[in-house]
Amino acid sequence: MIGFIFLHRDLLEWEWYQNPEVSRLYIHILLKANFTDKKWQGISVKRGQFITSSNHLASDLNLSIQKIRTALKKLESSGYITRQTTNKFTLITIVNYNNRQHQSVLTNKQKITQTQNKQLTNNNPPTTTKESNKIKNLNKEKIELRLAKFKKQVFEHSQYSTKILNAFFNYWSEFNTAKTKMKYESQRGFFEIERRLKKWTENEWKTTNKNNQQKNTISNR
């Protein structure tokens, strides 16, 4: 089977949407219904109709026959389908099928969208220099906020000396050439400040200790 159906978003507000058996069955019926008039064993099956049985529906949807019958009754009593049943088959008709499944529905929506887009375009003239500067200022404000946030996060680790924290912050808050991103933001994965501060302190200690050893060596000569 080829083709498609129109499934409207207002289905989310449908009274039976949260009922799994009824909603599944209704969508299945929409998919199975004829898109054009046809003949089946000498019987005229019109657009929006199809011939089936409770057994067939139960098999298609992997539901019990009792659940199918209950769901069919709910759809019929709610006015979404009608049924003509014989001892061999059931002819199901979708009520207001043409209102729901018509090419003009899609065409009209497309026209409305195109019109709205055109209006938006006409209502928004090209960006002026003043507007461009405004955007740059907004971007700058975002960068400054990110910078202040990062500084706060670094200096929350008060167990480290101010000297360590300042050096760490100054290094990782350096901006790229375009002034759009800080060095720490360019790192892959999560930037774990606590772990990196610990490593930074260890490196500082090693460097200081090495320098002190070199000074002692020179002074002992």
Question: Can you walk me through this structure?
Answer:
There is one protein chain. Helix 6 (about 130-155) packs antiparallel against helix 7 (about 160-170). This protein has a 3-stranded antiparallel β-sheet. Strands 1-2 form a two-stranded antiparallel ribbon. The longest helix is centred in the middle third of the chain and has 27 residues, at about 130-155. It is elongated and about 110 Å long. It is about 55% helix and about 10% strand. It has about 220 residues and is mainly α. Strand 1 and strand 2 form a beta hairpin. The mean pLDDT is about 80. The protein has 8 helices and 5 strands, in the order αβββααββααααα. It has 2 domains: about 10-100, Arc Repressor Mutant, subunit A; about 130-220, no CATH class.
What's a concise summary of this model?
The protein is mainly alpha-helical and 221 residues long. It has helices at residues 20-32, 54-61, 65-77, 97-100, 103-123, 129-155, 162-172, 193-219; strands spanning 38-40, 43-45, 49-52, 81-85, 90-94. Helix content is 56%, strand content 9%.
Question: What count of helical segments does DSSP give?
Answer: 8
CATH class of the largest domain: Mainly Alpha
Assembly annotation = single chain
**What's the CATH architecture name of the largest domain?**
Orthogonal Bundle
Judged by helices, strands and strand pairing, the structural class is mainly alpha
Largest sheet: 3 strands, antiparallel
